[in-house]
Design goal:
The protein is mainly alpha-helical.
Length: 307
């Protein structure tokens, strides 16, 4: 009977909210929310699409771009140089993704999301205007290094949606990412070298004639400008206050700690504080994801550059 009383008091206790905390305001809105939040869903979907477009948009014309730079001594070496440009983006992301996650946890999800889309505008445009090989590879590296979107946007999706919609939000992120990887090469293939493909519309003396690979980058950057404007209305979800003393009332861990005592709770805390690299279920999932991503990117680049 005593345990039942503790359980009822914990489950019926209301959540504590703090004034001037953006995360608490979002939690309050979620409690009052009725129906599916289509506005936030559409905005997040569009943001992820914008971030995914420049990843693969260069592959249809990358071979010709590197060829026009005259950096390869032999024609057989062009693919190798093109591979370095394609890998520069992922190298930048690899080196900075964890740091962007830490920044998002400390300063908020919204600033990282905003900076990532601004990076698309700036560095994707610079890439389209590249006049030599090192300018192109530097622009792609910076685009990846400053695009720390994917981790924070997934955390944001779980925080902005009620629990019954979180699975749908995360699946929509993956879907939008995949659609961006599909549309990107289509844009690159249709819009690259417009003075040659569409001479009736684009003159060879125009900027698109002098920079034949600028148009697809410009279209993606223009879309990113629209996305930046839409981010203004996204609420911040990070809590700017210390966690309330004691366990959270809605947590099952908190309920078990109250019923079973502090010893079991301490054991769980010690287990959760172990090094991530010793967490085999987590590391095995990361390894599988890395292998799948390696296969996906290698196939995409080899296939599109040999068409």
């Amino acid at each position: 009977m005593e345990n039942n009383g503790i359980q009822d008091s914990l489950l019926n206790k209301k959540a504590q909210y703090f004034d001037n905390c953006p995360g608490c305001k979002v939690d309050q809105l979620k409690e009052m929310q009725r129906g599916f939040p289509i506005k936030q869903f559409t905005t997040i979907w569009t943001i992820v699409l914008c971030a995914a477009l420049p990843i693969s948009s260069l592959f249809p014309f990358l071979y010709f771009m590197v060829r026009d730079f005259h950096v390869a001594g032999r024609e057989e070496d062009i693919n190798s140089y093109a591979g370095y440009v394609g890998a520069a983006y992922m190298l930048g992301r690899t080196l900075t993704s964890v740091s962007w996650g830490l920044v998002a946890d400390r300063y908020g999800r919204k600033p990282v999301i905003l900076l990532s889309i601004i990076a698309v505008i700036v560095f994707n445009t610079i890439f389209g205007l590249s006049v030599n090989y090192w300018m192109a590879i530097s622009a792609r590296f910076c685009l990846g290094a400053f695009n720390g979107l994917l981790g924070p946007i997934k955390a944001y999706a779980t925080e902005i949606f009620r629990s019954e919609y979180q699975a749908l939000a995360l699946s929509a992120i993956s879907t939008s990412w995949a659609i961006g990887l599909i549309i990107g090469p289509a844009l690159g293939g249709f819009l690259a070298q417009p003075a040659e493909q569409y001479p009736a519309i684009f003159s060879s003396a125009s900027i698109f004639g002098r920079f034949p690979y600028f148009l697809p980058c410009l279209v993606i950057s223009a879309f990113a400008v629209v996305v930046v404007v839409s981010i203004y209305w996204l609420p911040e979800t990070l809590h700017n206050h210390p966690p309330p003393a004691g366990p959270r009332p809605e947590s099952y861990d908190a309920l078990e700690a109250a019923l079973q005592g502090s010893k079991e709770a301490q054991e769980r805390q010690n287990t959760s504080s172990k090094s991530l690299f010793r967490n085999w279920p987590l590391m095995s999932s990361i390894i599988v994801y890395c292998i799948f991503s390696l296969h996906d990117m290698a196939y995409t680049e080899v296939y599109l550059t040999t068409m």
